Amino acid sequence: MNNDYLKKAEAVIKDKKVLSVVAAKRARQLALGGRPMVKCNAKNFLDVALLEIGEGLLDYTHPEFGTMGDPMPEAPVEAAAEEAKPEA
Question: Does the pTM exceed 0.85?
């Protein structure tokens, strides 16, 4: 794995766990015949995926939190208070 590509990708996706999942899924797509979105001499699909992320060509959407870069939604205070109440 190319450390320069990794540093570039970490600047785009701060959470390392999310970065690893996004990069792995993209590397798998490339391994199964997906076309790279960047010109890269690396033969390693993970390097190509990291470079694509670092160049800002890939993003992700989380079912609860939305697209990367969106602020995390805050939980409604009323719903949290109701869940914490013991049932009588």
Answer: no
d(Cα 85, Cα 88) in Å, to the nearest integer? 9
Gyration radius (Cα) of the chain, Å: 18
Q: Is the pLDDT of residue 49 over 50?
A: yes
20-25 contact pairs (CB < 8 A, 24+): 22/49, 22/53, 22/58, 22/60, 23/49, 23/50, 23/53, 24/49
Q: Helix/strand/coil (H, E, C) string of the chain?
A: CCHHHHHHHHHHCCCHHHHHHHHHHHHHHHHCCCCCCCCCCCCCHHHHHHHHHHCCCCCCEECCCEECCCCCCCCCHHHHHHHHCCCC
